[in-house]
Amino acid sequence: MTGHGVIINGPNSVRPISPPSRIVQGIPRMNIQVNGAPHEVSEGMTVQGLLRELQINVAQVAVEINLEILNQQDFDARRLCDGDRIEIMGFIGGGHSVAGRDLLA
Amino acid sequence: MSDECLTIAGREFRSRLWVGTGKYRDFAATREAIEASGAEVVTVAVRRVNITDRNTENLLDYLDPKQYTILPNTAGCYTVDDAVRYARLARAAGVSDMVKLEVLGDERTLFPDTAGLLEAARILIKEGFIVLPYTNDDPVVAQKLVDVGCPAVMPLAAPIGSGLGLRNPFNLKIIMETVNVPVIVDAGVGTASDAALVMEYGADAVLMNTAIAGADDPIAMATAMKYAVDAGRLAYKAGRIPRKLYATASSPIEGMLL
């Protein structure tokens, strides 16, 4: 099997490409995952910084890092690490059970 | 026009019609229909924020938290772990410590997994949540939910989105008579008469989404639902006459021509 985003190291080993760390304007970059998709940020980036970069209003969102739910007051101090899996959750229209789109994996 | 307030966990609500915010054309349409319904409690779902389209609007920008009680739900959760996770995320987002707890057991019917529901309710109540559980029309389960600390129960009238109306009025009635907390009938209402009937049976409130959002004219249906809920409540309070098989004349015989 071949396709975009995979490299083959042997007959049974298929793994996703992990881009090597880059350096942008003197600051090394980290590879993280945001809402299920790969994302690149500067080293030392805080949760608050990530939300600002993504232009997300901090009020009324919840952030989970590697399954740990953060308090909103910790967004400013909490620094991201390479490989972190981040979920940014908010509210959408819903009454009862709705389609699974945008559910957590 | 409504009578006394509905009190849940110390919070007072004047409107006995609770509404969901799903399935509308856009947020403006959502807001207009909710305004027409007169509802104070509106449910919302917890989902990933769209991070690729930065211009996405936020539902909560359209619903003034001073005017509405925002009730997050755990819609779409099929396991205890998922439901608990979504409830915690909802609370962390800072909107409410109330949650409409759903733990589903089956994709076709969306019937609740009541064993999972009880377990999730127990966990969340221990963490200080106000848990309003979406449950089956099962009086035994309803009582167990009350026993673990739910300040209200939300049994279904019919499957979510089915519009079938009140399928099992007798079980609903037993729940209303046996639990000592408010009963909010949740899901299955199709049109105004369904809502009125639910309230006539003695429900403390009714929650609906699809019946309004899916109507050809959601604003008109929201208005109809508001009147239906008020009418049903008034009829319940007024006390209906008993059903009889044969006629009873309502005009006196006396004074008739011989």
What's a concise summary of this model?
The complex is a heterodimer of chains A (105) and B (258). With 105 residues, chain A is mainly beta. Chain A has one helix spanning 47-53, and strands at 6-10, 13-16, 23-24, 27-34, 37-42, 62-65, 68-69, 85-93.
Task: Report the top-level CATH class of the domain at 24-90 in chain A.
Answer: Alpha Beta
Q: Helicity level of chain A, as a percent range?
A: under 10%
Order of helices and strands of chain B: EEEHEEHEHEHEHEHEHH
**Could you tell me the number of beta strands of chain A?**
8
Number of helical stretches of at least 4 residues of chain A: 1
Any idea what the CATH superfamily of the domain at 24-90 in chain A is called? Answer: Beta-grasp domain
Q: List unreliable stretches of 5+ residues of chain B.
A: none
* Percent of residues in β-strands of chain A: 35-45%
Structural class of chain A: mainly beta
**How would a textbook summarize the main sheet of chain A?**
6 strands, mixed
User: Globular, elongated, flat, extended or rod-shaped: what is the shape of chain A?
Assistant: globular
Which regions of chain A contain 5 or more consecutive residues with pLDDT less than 50? 1-15
Largest sheet of chain B: 5 strands, parallel
Distance between the termini of chain A: 24 Å
